[in-house]
Amino acid sequence: MTQKTAPEKLVSALLQTINPKEIADEKMRQTLEILLNLIEQLNSKVIELEAENQKLRDENNRLKGEQGKPDIKANKKKGLKKNYSERERTKNEQESSQKSQKDTNKNRPLRDY
Length: 113
What we know:
The protein has helices at about 5-15, 25-65, 85-105. The chain is mainly α.
């Protein structure tokens, strides 16, 4: 897992803000340093196990004939779209509306009785 989720980012940010050297009591400082190291170790282990768990789920699904977790990529524009100017757009719209009027006039009778 290369991307960190929101709780992982919060934990990392919180651990960076804590400075054990600011604590006056020596025993409290040592205890805090031990706890912070333990939190970092456990957090990295959780991340590692979550990644392994996902790989095993994907493998299990593949063996059952299902598909694994999809690899979702960002949307990309396909090809270049024509960028018409306002003048060209209105010209094209007028031509298409004139064409549709001609088509409807063909179906009308010449005289109304």
